[in-house]
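Subgroup meeting minutes
Present: P.N., E.W., G.H.
Scribe: E.W.

1. P.N. recapped why we're keeping a running log of single-chain structure predictions: easier to compare across weeks, and new members can see raw inputs and outputs side by side.
2. G.H. added today's entry (289 aa).
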Amino acid sequence: MTLTIPALRAKSVRRRRRRPLGLSLAIGFLFVVIATAVLAPVLAPHSPAATSLLDSLAPPGSEGHLLGTDSAGRDVLSRLMYGARLSLLAPLGVVLLSGLFGTALGLLAARAGGWVDAVISRAMDIVFSFPSLLLAMLVVAVFGPGLTAPICALAVAYTPFIGRVVRSMALQEGTRPYIDGYRVMGFGELWVTVRHLLPNVLPALIAQGALSFAYALVDLASLSYLGLGVRPPDADWGSMLSQAQSAILQGSPWSALIPGIAILLTVVSVNVLGEHIGHSIGKKQSEGT
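Output recorded in log:
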């Protein structure tokens, strides 16, 4: 049956109405954060590194500083916009690396089985037993502060999260009749895995990736707060929190509250989006069975 344009519009409206308010707010907030990070050179009212001791700890709403200034007189809004870049790109790098390795290991364990599955599963259990933040701190202690070492360390720490999900989904999909059908038709194991099994695992992988992004954002912000992450003059939200400690003692908490709220809202928004994706996947799978 062909739907008319008014019918399609009505269907789209119904879908938007069914969307939870929290999900809509989360998507809207993430869109604003991403757009702000991309357009920071255009939108930022000041240079993020420009200091002015005369404007030190100016309150929000003061002339030329919508969100005030920090103890060095740097504009908080500008630093928040530029800091969003590293605060988003670094966790994205963790998710991409862990997703790549976790997907490869999970598929290999599920499809190979036997001793290969046992070795990969035990290796992921060992890595899983190490706290991700502690592992990142150990790597930074060896290779020095910066972003490269923590990103690589957290990618290794998060690989078991992705690998377990992919392995479980691949084992479940591997029992379906269409897999045996392709084997009977003579298609190779690699072709069946990449062409048909991986697309069916991908939705669950996206949901787990969203949750891993939120965890990585907090871990990287914690490292920057401890002085083990981003190095000056670059800034992210974690380093902004660290540099604002003295301002809190001087009775000017806004330079710490603003990046802290940004971290909180971003993590909550990503978790809401990831939870919605997970529920959608589970609903579709239950309907398919």
